[in-house]
Amino acid sequence: MSLVTIKVSGNSKPNEQFVVKAGAFKIGIGENQTKPELNAPCPVEYILAGFAGCLNIVGGLVAKELNIEIKSIQIELSGVLDVDKYLGTPTLERAGFQTIEITVTPISDAPREVLKKWISIVESRCPVYDNLFNHTPILLNLVHELQPEVV
Predict the structure, then answer these.
(1) For a pLDDT cut of 90, what percent of the chain falls above it?
(2) pLDDT in tens, 42-59
(3) Contacts 24+ apart (CB under 8 A), 46-52
(4) CA-based nearest residue to 102, from 127, 115, 83, 119
(5) DSSP assigned state of 34
(6) How far apart, in whole angstroms, are the C-alpha atoms of residue 88 and residue 73?
(7) 56 near 128, Cβ under 8 Å?
(8) Res. 148: pLDDT tops 90
(9) Structure confidence by residue, pLDDT tens digits, 9-52
């Protein structure tokens, strides 16, 4: 077993962009009504974007292992959300995606059967696919820091 811990952290203040630091990168998240120049994708769009990126990376690794030449790959994802829970409207529905549909279009001279094997292996090895498909324990910790009163 080769475990790796991936960490990100984010911070925001009222009327500012929520920014997540991931390694050497800063990622803006969400819309900003008062400063439109700070607009960025919403969190669920980042989930789909990360999913597409992960499929791309794993797809390249698996293609190399299977000696498949993939000239290019197009990956499209769409997710269906019921936003009632998110907006606080009483509902029995989940807050997350109801479904996610993925269309992978590789440009390759490889036979269809080889590409079917390739995508099956990609599916089984993609960490984001695994996290969205299977239950992953999540520990949510709240730390409450009080601000000192100014007298």
Answers:
(1) 79
(2) 999 999 999 999 999 999
(3) 47/79, 47/97, 47/128, 47/132, 48/77, 48/78, 48/79, 48/100, 50/128, 51/77, 51/100, 51/102, 51/126, 51/128, 51/129, 51/132, 52/76, 52/77
(4) 119
(5) S
(6) 39
(7) no
(8) no
(9) 998 887 778 899 999 999 999 887 777 887 899 999 999 999 99
Helix (H) or strand (E) holding 107: strand 97-108
User: Domain 42-133 has what CATH class?
Assistant: alpha beta
Assign 151 a pLDDT band (cuts: 50, 70, 90): low
For the beta carbon of residue 144, count every other beta carbon within 10 angstroms. Answer: 4
Q: Please, are residues 125 and 62 in contact by the beta-carbon 8 Å criterion?
A: yes
DSSP state letters, 41-91: --HHHHHHHHHHHHHHHHHHHHHHHTT--EEEEEEEEEEEE-THHHHT---
Pairing mode, if any, of strands 18-22 and 9-11? antiparallel
